[in-house]
C-alpha cells in the first residue's frame, strides 16, 4: 500500500488540481487516515511532483503524525540541511510553508486548520526514502472563556465552546459597565482562540460613578437636616481613626478620598489605626466589618501645623482589598482632568 488515497477522493475536481502533478490525492470526507510517499517504504521514484490536500469540515482541525522512518535526502550546507533536491512542503493557510527534509521525523504537526496541503518533490539526483504519516482530526474547542470580574459571559449561539460559538461579555449593571458601553462578542475561531470584533483582550468592567440607584431630590442643603434615605449617598465613608471620626468618599474600587487633616495629627496617622465603614446612612448603626488601609497618601504640599492653613487638604487612602460595588456602596465621579470650579458656589 503506497498511499491510501483511493481514486474516489480524487474527484472534488475544481479544488483538487491533480492534473498539475504526477501523484498525490485529495481528501475531503475522511476524518482520519494514512498517507505515504509513492512506493514507501521503498525509495521514491525520481522527478516526482506530488500534491496531497486534506480538507475536512471547518469545525475540525487536522493533525499530522509522521512516523519515525522519515528520510528525505537533503544537501548539507553550513547552516545545516537544506531542502534543495528533495523535499516535502507542508502548507497551512496564513502560515509560512514548512519545507521538510533530512533524516529526522517532524513527529506531530498540529495544524490548527481544517485544511493542509503537502507538496512532495524528488529530484533525479540523490535518493529520498520517503515518508509516511497518519492524520487525524479534532473538534475545534476554544475552552472556557476567561471569566470577567464584576460581569459575566453568556452564549449567543453555537455549541458549547466549539468552533463558531459566539459568546458575549456583560458587566453587572448598573454598578459596572463595559468601556464605551459596547457589546463585546467573541467567536471561537479555527485557531482555537476566542476572537472579538474589537481586540482579542478580555474586557474589563469599569465601575459606574455618581449614579446612585436612589436619588435625593428634596434635600439639597443641610438646613434643619433630614435623614438621608438608604442608598442615596453610596460613596459616603465613615472613618474611625483611633476613636476620632472623619468622613471620606469612595472614588474607585480601591481608593478613598478624604481630607488631609483627618489623616494627620501633627504626623501622618498610622494606617493600622484607620477603620473605614461604607454603605451606612446612620451613625448609630452598629459598626461592623471595617475596611482597612493599605497605604495613606497625604497631599505633599499640605502643611498645617497650627490648624490655620487648609490648602491642599486632601489625602488618598488605598484599600487593602478591592470593593465590590452594589446599591449601598458606589463611587463618586472625579472632575475631569483640568476642570476648574468657581469658589464659593455650590454643586
Ligand atoms: C503518533 O503515532 C505514533 C505511532 O507512530 C503513536 O504512538 C502516537 O500515539 C501518535 N500520536 C498521536 C498524538 O496520535
Ligand atoms: C447588547 O446585547 C444585548 C444582549 O444580547 C442586547 O439586548 C442589546 O441590544 C445589545 N446592545 C447593543 C448596543 O448592541
Ligand atoms: C453591599 O456590599 C457590602 C460589602 O460587601 C455588603 O456588606 C452589603 O450588604 C451589600 N449591600 C447590598 C444592598 O447588597
Automatic annotation (TrEMBL):
<keyword id="KW-0325">Glycoprotein</keyword>
<dbReference type="GO" id="GO:0072562">
    <property type="term" value="C:blood microparticle"/>
</dbReference>
<dbReference type="InterPro" id="IPR001254">
    <property type="entry name" value="Trypsin_dom"/>
</dbReference>
<keyword id="KW-0597">Phosphoprotein</keyword>
<dbReference type="InterPro" id="IPR043504">
    <property type="entry name" value="Peptidase_S1_PA_chymotrypsin"/>
</dbReference>
<keyword id="KW-0245">EGF-like domain</keyword>
<keyword id="KW-0720">Serine protease</keyword>
<dbReference type="InterPro" id="IPR009003">
    <property type="entry name" value="Peptidase_S1_PA"/>
</dbReference>
<keyword id="KW-0378">Hydrolase</keyword>
<feature type="domain" description="CUB">
    <location>
        <begin position="23"/>
        <end position="138"/>
    </location>
</feature>
<feature type="disulfide bond">
    <location>
        <begin position="23"/>
        <end position="50"/>
    </location>
</feature>
<keyword id="KW-0645">Protease</keyword>
<keyword id="KW-1015">Disulfide bond</keyword>
<dbReference type="InterPro" id="IPR035914">
    <property type="entry name" value="Sperma_CUB_dom_sf"/>
</dbReference>
<dbReference type="Pfam" id="PF00089">
    <property type="entry name" value="Trypsin"/>
</dbReference>
<dbReference type="GO" id="GO:0031638">
    <property type="term" value="P:zymogen activation"/>
</dbReference>
<dbReference type="InterPro" id="IPR000859">
    <property type="entry name" value="CUB_dom"/>
</dbReference>
<keyword id="KW-0768">Sushi</keyword>
<dbReference type="Pfam" id="PF00084">
    <property type="entry name" value="Sushi"/>
</dbReference>
<dbReference type="Pfam" id="PF00431">
    <property type="entry name" value="CUB"/>
</dbReference>
<feature type="domain" description="Sushi">
    <location>
        <begin position="140"/>
        <end position="207"/>
    </location>
</feature>
<dbReference type="GO" id="GO:0004252">
    <property type="term" value="F:serine-type endopeptidase activity"/>
</dbReference>
<feature type="domain" description="Peptidase S1">
    <location>
        <begin position="222"/>
        <end position="344"/>
    </location>
</feature>
<protein>
    <recommendedName>
        <fullName>CUB domain-containing protein</fullName>
    </recommendedName>
</protein>
<dbReference type="InterPro" id="IPR000436">
    <property type="entry name" value="Sushi_SCR_CCP_dom"/>
</dbReference>
<dbReference type="InterPro" id="IPR035976">
    <property type="entry name" value="Sushi/SCR/CCP_sf"/>
</dbReference>
Amino acid at each position: 500500500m503506497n498511499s491510501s488515497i483511493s481514486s474516489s477522493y480524487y474527484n472534488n475536481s475544481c479544488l483538487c488540481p491533480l492534473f498539475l502533478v504526477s501523484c498525490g490525492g485529495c481528501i475531503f470526507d475522511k476524518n482520519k487516515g494514512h498517507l505515504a510517499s509513492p512506493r514507501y517504504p521503498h525509495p521514491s521514484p525520481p522527478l516526482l511532483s506530488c500534491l496531497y490536500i486534506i480538507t475536512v469540515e471547518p469545525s475540525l482541525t487536522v493533525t499530522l503524525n509522521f512516523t519515525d522512518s522519515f528520510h528525505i535526502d537533503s544537501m548539507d550546507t553550513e547552516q545545516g540541511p537544506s531542502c534543495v533536491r528533495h523535499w516535502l512542503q507542508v502548507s497551512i493557510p496564513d502560515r509560512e510553508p514548512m519545507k521538510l527534509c533530512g533524516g529526522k521525523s517532524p513527529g506531530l504537526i498540529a495544524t490548527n486548520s481544517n485544511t493542509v496541503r503537502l507538496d512532495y518533490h524528488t529530484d533525479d539526483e540523490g535518493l529520498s526514502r520517503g515518508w509516511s504519516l497518519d492524520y487525524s482530526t479534532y473538534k475545534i474547542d476554544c475552552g472556557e472563556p476567561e471569566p470577567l470580574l464584576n460581569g459575566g459571559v453568556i452564549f449567543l449561539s453555537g455549541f458549547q465552546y466549539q468552533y463558531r460559538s459566539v459568546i458575549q461579555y456583560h458587566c453587572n449593571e448598573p454598578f459596572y459597565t463595559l468601556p464605551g458601553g459596547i457589546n463585546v462578542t467573541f467567536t471561537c475561531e479555527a485557531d482555537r482562540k476566542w476572537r472579538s470584533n474589537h481586540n482579542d483582550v478580555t474586557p474589563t468592567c469599569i465601575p459606574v460613578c455618581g449614579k446612585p440607584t436612589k436619588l435625593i431630590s428634596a434635600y439639597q442643603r443641610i438646613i434643619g437636616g433630614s435623614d438621608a434615605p438608604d442608598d442615596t449617598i453610596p460613596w459616603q465613608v465613615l472613618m474611625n481613626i483611633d476613636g476620632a471620626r472623619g468622613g471620606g468618599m469612595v472614588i474607585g474600587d480601591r481608593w478613598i478620598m478624604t481630607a488631609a487633616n483627618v489623616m494627620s495629627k501633627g504626623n501622618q496617622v498610622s494606617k493600622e489605626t484607620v477603620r473605614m465603614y461604607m454603605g451606612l446612612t446612620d451613625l448609630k448603626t452598629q459598626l461592623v466589618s471595617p475596611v482597612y488601609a493599605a497605604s495613606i497618601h497625604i497631599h505633599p504640599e499640605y502643611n498645617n501645623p497650627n490648624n490655620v492653613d487648609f490648602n491642599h487638604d486632601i489625602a488618598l487612602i488605598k484599600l487593602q482589598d478591592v470593593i465590590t460595588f452594589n446599591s449601598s456602596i458606589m463611587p463618586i465621579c472625579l472632575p475631569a482632568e483640568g476642570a476648574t470650579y468657581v469658589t464659593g458656589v455650590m454643586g
